Amino acid sequence: MDMAQFLAAGVFIDSDAPPVVAFAKQATAGQTDPGAAILRLYYTIRDGIIYDPYVDIADPANYRASSVLAAARGFCIGKSALLAASARSIGVPARVGYADVRNHLTSPRLYKMMKTDAFLWHSYTELYLSGRWVKATPAFDKALCDRIGLKPLPFDGETDSLFQPFDQAGRRHMEYLNDRGWFADVPFNTIKADFIASYPSLMDGKAIAGDFRAEAVARTMTQPRPHSDEITG
What we know:
This protein is of the alpha+beta class. It has helices spanning 18-27, 34-48, 65-71, 76-89, 108-114, 142-148, 188-198, 212-219; strands at 50-51, 73-74, 94-103, 118-129, 132-136, 174-183.
């Protein structure tokens, strides 16, 4: 496999963007071990970039690493792209992976708009450490997790870090439905086409009104809702 593609800058994994380079350098200052440096990047991005699926998901900027960094908020695709870009900027091969998932604890507003709790193209980052690829999911920040009763997702650089099937109260949380594999850069056009087909109400070029964090908290106080057995689209 040609590893050069996992170190080169992409359109969305823009690891050569000066703000990304500066961010990665600052976050890993004084750390010479690649694995330890990646851990610093993971936790800095996980907790320092607010998880917000209410951004305008029709806007390509919300899929681009440098734009997510500038906004200091983003949903899973943008945050994973930022981790991949930051890793590449310090010389660690990185790529982005995707899966379709069902989030049993999604917010009522998002559920109402999507008419499903199944999310296409959920993203994580794959990092090449110690001679093998390992998955890391920097999506949900610690502040959000603390408020919804979910243990923040750890990453040790050695084992895959994927969302837990249950939260700390034993409620169902994340269910992985379909593995879409990895990509050297964010496949924006494919994702956009699938989102238009499956979530037309979210692709009107506007951010969703509301506070996702507050609504996610409110969701924990409601009864479990029914969901379809199939992913839309």
